[in-house]
Amino acid sequence: MRLPLRAATLILLGVLVVTIPIGHPRAAEGPITGFPGAQTDVQRELEARFDAGLNPDDLRTWMEHLSSRPHHVGSPFGREVAEFIAERFREWGYETAVETYQVLFPTPRVRRLEMVAPTRFTAALEEPSLSEDRTSDQKDEQLPSYNAYSIDGDVTGELVYVNYGVPADYEELERRGIDVAGKIVIARYGGSWRGIKPKVAAERGAIGCLIYSDPRDDGYGRGDVYPDGPYRRADGAQRGSVADMPLFPGDPLTPNVGATEAAVRLDLDEAPTLTKIPVLPISYADAEPLLAALGGPVAPGNWRGGLPLTYHLGPGPAQVHLEVAFNWDLEPAYNVIARLEGRERADQWVLRGNHHDAWVNGAADPISGMVVLMAEAKAIGALARTGWRPRRTIVFTAWDAEEPGLIGSTEWGEHHADELRERAVAYINTDGNGRGFLNMSGSHTLQRFINEVARDVTDPQTGVSVFDRRHARRLANGATEDLAATGDHRINALGSGSDYTPFLQHLGIASLNLGFGGESGGGSYHSIFDSFDHYTRFIDPTFEYGIALAQTAGRAVLRLADAELLPWDFTAFEATVGRYADEVIALTDDMREETERQNRLLHDGRFELAADPTKTYAPPDAEDPVPHLNFAPVRNALVGLAASAQAHDVARRALVAGGDRLSTDQAREVDKILFRTERAMTHPDGLPGRSWFVHQIYAPGFYTGYGVKTLPGVREAIEERAWEEAQRQIARLADTIRQVASEVDRATQFLEPAGP
Amino acid sequence: MRLPLRAATLILLGVLVVTIPIGHPRAAEGPITGFPGAQTDVQRELEARFDAGLNPDDLRTWMEHLSSRPHHVGSPFGREVAEFIAERFREWGYETAVETYQVLFPTPRVRRLEMVAPTRFTAALEEPSLSEDRTSDQKDEQLPSYNAYSIDGDVTGELVYVNYGVPADYEELERRGIDVAGKIVIARYGGSWRGIKPKVAAERGAIGCLIYSDPRDDGYGRGDVYPDGPYRRADGAQRGSVADMPLFPGDPLTPNVGATEAAVRLDLDEAPTLTKIPVLPISYADAEPLLAALGGPVAPGNWRGGLPLTYHLGPGPAQVHLEVAFNWDLEPAYNVIARLEGRERADQWVLRGNHHDAWVNGAADPISGMVVLMAEAKAIGALARTGWRPRRTIVFTAWDAEEPGLIGSTEWGEHHADELRERAVAYINTDGNGRGFLNMSGSHTLQRFINEVARDVTDPQTGVSVFDRRHARRLANGATEDLAATGDHRINALGSGSDYTPFLQHLGIASLNLGFGGESGGGSYHSIFDSFDHYTRFIDPTFEYGIALAQTAGRAVLRLADAELLPWDFTAFEATVGRYADEVIALTDDMREETERQNRLLHDGRFELAADPTKTYAPPDAEDPVPHLNFAPVRNALVGLAASAQAHDVARRALVAGGDRLSTDQAREVDKILFRTERAMTHPDGLPGRSWFVHQIYAPGFYTGYGVKTLPGVREAIEERAWEEAQRQIARLADTIRQVASEVDRATQFLEPAGP
User: pLDDT at position B8, please?
Assistant: First the structure.
């Protein structure tokens, strides 16, 4: 059946090419890895037909509907959203299922915040309806502002301002003689993922935690506030999860297993990812009287925000009473899973996902990405109706319960872990989308691949490729050294913050996260003002960047699904891991030097002499000297990986240049080795203290939350000054690198004339 | 008479040493340059007696009186201040004169600022009386907030926000399509000296200029505002001169000559240092409605200040009406000059100065420095009463009319130029003094000298030397490389901003500027709240840093006055000029690289591609390539200077080590050569476009105002891309360096056994 299909494709193209509007991308000239010879042209023609199936009016219509009412987990409209999406997938020809999990999702019963001294003030904790925003008045269905997985609590105490509330901030407080034990802390959003703030505050003995949006970071300091502009209003608040996701994401009661009805669940009081203290997010209008009432030392210069007051640290005289209580209910999470069976390697799954649940109406987050995924699914469905089938199976997924903690994707990933480890080729994620420049993050074995895609997608505003526009931006912003040695953009490593996490970091599936941004800043994130009105005024009014993202992610899906041989490349991976190794070695050297410097200054009494005796500013604590670690195992392993990566690249190019083809069975075998190299980057024991995270190259930081830590076992051990652990992790990392190299060698054997 | 004096000194010391309180500085052990052998001990004992004559109660009493009423130029109390100081000098045994000049000093007749569109608002332009500040209610005698040497004007126009109003800010505006021609600009204080703002605005065609104090830089963003804390209130404003002092300071009508009664004066309308457009300084309370009413693009991130609003650029819709008119009167400026005749080299003058005029009450600026100078004069007068006389003549000077433009010192310097060039050894300046760490700036031929002084003065808060405390601070703040190769602190080069300018930069007299600070921030500068109440609450309540400054500057005066041979050192000077040369060479290379990079990006259209097409952001202008300049003449001259400096140092040490002494006549000759080496750093033509500034190593920047430009002829020509001029200035700089080297060689000949 293969040849007739291709012929049909070619015949159809004669028509379709001329219908592509003028100004659309001229198909690029370069080869596409995995599509030898004429297959490149065939693929580009397929992609042109795919592009022709994308329609910005679809995106607009779907967004208007899907953001027309609040649709958080367990809400009435949330279910309708899932059903609407499932219905579309079915219409477009996908084998579609809604897979439901029962997940812990607390909603607020009591939210009370008042200042009880030195004056009284009761926080409003309320975002107002605006006539300029048609959905802002849906009070009955809106979740009020709160932080999910805060424990219940009723506490009163003196207030302390802790800046972003990261560990270094508490060290500064200590040097000023300020202890937060028994106090309530107020931290500003930013500097870390929000869930880190109550975690660190609790570690330091605080009894409650307020998180507010400072206008310098997220308000009038950024630009005009809504509805005059896109930024956060004084009364705007940021909802969000504060579960300890760096321990494990997903349902807090069912770590490692799918939260099916029958799953064995932890008791609520033993769930380790709930906070240890009550937490509440507040607006800057609510924060201002509290901060204005703080006494104590003036905050350090870089701790000061944009409110018109002098930031003080406290503690007190401001005292606050914080009370929160929640409905600790299980709610159904509806994942929509839509399959288009592959024609040849149906057991190889290319996964493409975006979540559908929102904190409130969620036009930007997540619907702007969701409608992109739907547009791709519709266009690919249309291709399939013409008789085309992908070589591999394509699986579109629309996740529920991402907002409270990547729950839909995590439970599905845990539930289907064995078949995913066996079959998943890669996972392509999107989430909210904006206007501007393509952001590409993910597995570096796919760096070359996604750069090829970026060269083939046209930026809607300028008519050059999104690759070139991104390059221009970086150069214009002053970057001197920019592209990797290969001429590709360096893609960023993934930490956490969206649904790639279970696939990449728990299951070892190569992942990419894609989106546009940089010209559509705003402050609607996790507020009631993340609405269709806001999105279509300020973010991507024409949905042209929605189309550009569909062209990007759609090409990624189509190429991964159709390539004769999966387009994995290990040279960029090896170069990247080499750079990370340089970083952790430099980190150790810098820490050693800084520790020596600091201990010498302590010994010489310089800190006491430098301090203003009218203020409390104690010297830092002395630290044990930083030993020299043996990084040789990693260096040696990298030498091996470099050789393996190089040999693989040479063999692959030679195969294409020679016009040789593997048999289907051989290709299938090589594919399996290639896509499972990401599994080889995992270790069954996981990272120290958090066994759920098994990837040894990428992880969210234990104290950064979303922010990535590359080579996490080694890097975090060094950062925590756990030298013996660091040395163990270095050995493990070397093993991991050797394991990857050995898999690469195994794949290469198939490509060589002699065969394996 | 010499020996009996010394004997008397030594006899007295037996008593005095035991009266020094415990905890005071143990006299340091090291030698003092210029005081060979036992003379070092004699000098240290003299300094101990000097210290014993310093009394913090004197400083407090004098400050309370001298800041009890406003005392600007031409005010009734200003005359009383001069007379009070003169009377004290006479009491203490000095030959004292009040030298009077007639100087242009405009005072406001009309000050009006109102917004006329889109809403109406009238600026208060008024600092209020506070019950916590006893002198704040002296409305009849206070000068209101204004900028001296603004021209009269009555203009109405659209408003544009120009950030700090430096040339780079206008380039950013241009890229955004904003032209200030015909507009009124509003700039925030900071980023340059205030007088640069109207100068650059006028160059760009603006018709008026407002300068406001932004609370982020100078208000609640820094700390608690007065009277809760020391920082600037919302209604506080900063007075100050806006004459074009980088052209020439002093009386605008009498450049280059003393403003005596008989002096020939320029007509007002040809006075080149008056502004070209009307200017008014305003408070942030007055600025807030204006900034809030601006439309147009949102200001770039680093342009945004601390007001609770989104900073926009305009132009308009805010329109303002600005009207200012002044009494253009000549006023008498009273300089108090007090001499203590030297016993041996009376024609060598050691000058020590501080100004006495203030914008209003001026407790910090200038009285905190003035009372330090008075304490030194009193203690030295007391030494003289015991029979001691300095080897050289000491001249204490209290300047009037510093605030409007360094006028008293400049007119005196111009008036007495010939004898000063002949006789002035050095000029030691102070101005407002604070608490904390010693700041040392000035001529690098005195770097070693002033470091020796700093090692011998005890920090009152910690009991270590002020040298060590400053060192501790730098190390604790993270400086890795800190001291110069000699083990000395590197002193900063002087730009402008106080009375050293005429001496250093017009007359070529080696100068130092000294003061403590770093622990006494505040926002009283040039406001009615620079009061005794403010100073004694927030700046130096015990006057212990006033005493420390008197010990520092007093030692400098005593050592310069008494040294057997003046303590000039050229090795630090050579090393410093070498570093400056490295800087200008690197500057040229960086400009070349940046120009190439930018022109390449322009050629490739990268700026257009990077720009958000929904906003105006034009590419920067293409620049001509930066040629390679021939810096070899400077490098070669520096090689020569290094050899000369080294030979001088060796000869000087050999002389001391050998126990040899020069005859008095020989020493006098060497002295003259040494102190005139600073004259050798000048060129009679001055700097391009500003002949008043003749020093070739240090000058205030033409576009920075107070900020120094070292090697100014070369550096500013490069910055302005005037390549031929740069090459000419390089040749001139090389000549200057050779001229200094030749003078050093001439001095060295006297020190060598063979003699000259």
Answer: 37
Express the helix, strand and coil content of chain A in percent, nearest 5 each. Answer: 40, 20, 40
CB proximity under 8 Å: B 569-598 to A: 597
If you measure CA to CA, which chain B residue comes closest to A479?
Answer: B597
Q: Do residues B651 and B673 touch, judged by C-beta distance below 8 A?
A: no
- Find all residues with CB under 8 Å of B144, minimum gap 6, and list them: B108, B111, B125, B126
| Interface contact A472, partner B, CB < 8 A | yes
One DSSP character per residue, A718-734 reads: HHTT-HHHHHHHHHHHH
Q: What contacts B691, CB < 8 A, 6 or more positions away?
A: B685
Phi first, then psi: what are they for B406, rounded to 5°?
55, 40
Q: What is the pLDDT of residues B655-664, one digit of tens each?
A: 988 888 899 9
- Please give the residue of chain B at the shortest CA–CA distance from A284: B308
Nearest to A462 among B462, B477, B609 (CB): B609
- pLDDT of A28: 59
- Tell me, yes or no, if B230 comes closer than 8 A to chain A by beta carbon: no
Q: Residue B483 is encoded by which pair of tokens?
A: 């001291």
Look at the block and give the residue holding tokens 């501007």.
A436
Burial of B487 (0-12, 13-18, 19+ CB in 10 A): exposed
Q: Is B436 an 8 Å CB contact of chain A?
A: yes
Pairing of strands B424-429, B511-518: parallel
Task: Go through the domains of chain B in sequence order and give each one's CATH number.
Answer: 2-102+331-425+455-481+493-509+525-562 (3.40.630.10), 104-328 (3.50.30.30), 571-751 (1.20.930.40)
The per-residue pLDDT for A659 is: 84
Which mean pLDDT values do the consecutive 10-residue runs of chain A (756 residues) have? 34 34 48 93 97 98 98 98 98 98 98 98 98 97 98 98 98 97 98 96 98 98 97 97 97 98 96 98 98 98 97 97 98 98 97 98 98 98 97 98 98 98 98 98 98 98 97 88 87 97 98 97 95 98 98 98 97 98 98 96 95 94 96 98 97 90 93 98 97 98 91 98 98 98 97 73
Helix (H) or strand (E) holding A12: helix A2-19
pLDDT mean over B731-739: 98
Token pair 């006055």 in the structure block, residue: B561
Q: How sure is the predictor about B481, in pLDDT bands with cuts at 50, 70 and 90?
A: low
Q: Are A189 and A165 in contact (CB under 8 A)?
A: no
A620 CA: distance to closest CA in chain B (Å): 10
Inter-chain touch B610–A473, beta carbons under 8 Å: yes
Is the CB of residue B304 less than 8 Å away from at least one CB of chain A?
yes
pLDDT for B533 beyond 50: yes
pLDDT digit string, tens, across residues B499-531: 999 999 999 999 999 999 999 989 999 999 999
- How far away is chain B from the Cα of A282, in angstroms, using its nearest Cα? 18
The pLDDT score that the predictor gives to residue B478 is 84
Distance in Å, alpha carbon of A732 to nearest chain B alpha carbon:
35
DSSP type of residue B682? B
Is residue B93 within 8 Å of B385, Cβ to Cβ?
A: yes
Q: Is the Cα torsion angle B539, B542, B548, B554 positive or negative in sign? A: positive
Contact A610 B477 (CB under 8 A): yes
First-to-last CA distance in chain A? 30
Rounded to whole angstroms, the Cα distance separating A676 from A661 reads: 22
ipTM: 0.92
- Count CA atoms within 13 Å of residue B473 on its CB side: 21
SS3 A267: coil
> How far apart (Å, rounded) are the C-alpha atoms in residues A179 and B612?
47
Do the Cβ atoms of A446 and A453 come closer than 8 Å?
Answer: no
Classify the C-alpha dihedral A25-A343-A652-A643 as positive or negative. Answer: positive
